[in-house]
Amino acid sequence: MRQLPRWLPRRLPRLLTEKLPEPPPVLRRGPLRENAFPSRLHDPRMAALLGVWLGIAFGTCFLTGLVSHFMQHPPSWLEWPSRPAWLYRVTQGLHVTTGLASVPLLLAKLWTVYPLLWEWPPIRSVAHAVERMTIVPLIAGAIFQLSTGIANIAQWYRFHFFFTVTHYWVAWITIGALVLHIVAKLTVIRANVGRRRHERAHLAAATMATTTMAGAAPGTGGLTRRGLGLATGTAAGVIVATTAGQSVPGLARLDLLAPRRPDIGPQGLPVNRTARAARVTSLARDPGYRLEVVGPRRVVYTIEELHALRRYSSKLPITCVEGWAADATWHGPRLRNLLDAAMIPADATVRVESLEARGGYRASDVNPSHARDSLTLLATGVNGADLDLDHGYPARLIAPNRPGVLQTKWVHRVVMV
Ligand SMILES: Nc1nc2c(c(=O)[nH]1)N[C@H]1C(S)=C(S)[C@@H](COP(=O)(O)O)O[C@H]1N2
Ligand SMILES: [Mo]
């Protein structure tokens, strides 16, 4: 490979920031005119303050999203722990709630900065052009993530791509663009956040050249910064308060906007995929049903034999990736006792398979820490009764600290992987 010219590193910063020639002023019409957006709310301080809140919300949403992704697709070196049992409920509740709260924050932020679309001159330097270009993936990514996320929690799967994969990759693009954006705006953020008024005035004068929004005319009346901040905060607060009830116990009564009430459905639990939709109705009711556990030994149970095994009870939530969580008391044999009967070693991962012939959630892998947890059951009952067909009759997996998609229903086989 040829070496880069030696002058490059030294010249690069200058090349990037060198002032480009300005376009002729006759082009300054309409929104391009000076002072075309007189509201004092289109200012760097408003933008920076909203940006901080949005950054916190997006950061939390991204990290909790990673947790959910890696719980569902663990790399080989990662064995997810089964405790604390409530962890996934908290991370996924945060994921959906911070995503929803971002909607009003993002709208307010976009409104505050949209005059920058007509910034003059449009390009000041190469660095400025690059900085402006990173805004495209940032805004497109943010809008895409929030709208597909909302469609998903509302179970509106009309888009023609696979939600989880796309949502995951666009998250990386968006967060990458966000980091670049924060780096590019560091001076403006520093000058506007966490400083006293006189310090801000001083710094604003020093950074005036880096932002065209600094010169908003004072005293133009109308909504104040505090007013817009309060309105946005209130909107975010109302959204959080009226949706958090789908995952936070005790808030269900406030749960007006959320697509789910955690207590509505057969046996007081919601259902995502019914037995009918999964086409398992007759297989699940078939008296010839057998549960097969395959390890070094192969053990087969009829439904009566399954019910005759020693029963345990576990109070565990179903925590759907779509943001709702519902508590229940499940009854049935411990998974680890079934594995022992088939002589499956304690460090083995097992696959739990459903009667469902097709579908993305027809099987799930259970790592040793989950498989051996005393709370993990192959449940045959819930809340004191036999499982409803829609909750996975004759048997379903229920384990702590695990997304709902992995709590396989209508189980008929457990095999050592
Ligand atoms: N076989 C099978 N099991 C499944 C599913 C499925 O589609 N097929 N859906 C999962 C999802 S997404 C969730 S949230 C829970 C919901 O369980 P419930 O219907 O008993 O509330 O079951 C899981 N188990
Ligand atoms: Mo789910």
TrEMBL record:
It comes from the Bacteria. The chain crosses the membrane at residues 47-72, 92-114, 135-157, 169-188. It holds the Pfam family Oxidored_molyb. Keywords: Membrane, Transmembrane, Transmembrane helix. Residues 288-415 form the Oxidoreductase molybdopterin-binding domain. This is Oxidoreductase, molybdopterin binding. It comes from Frankia casuarinae (strain DSM 45818 / CECT 9043 / HFP020203 / CcI3).
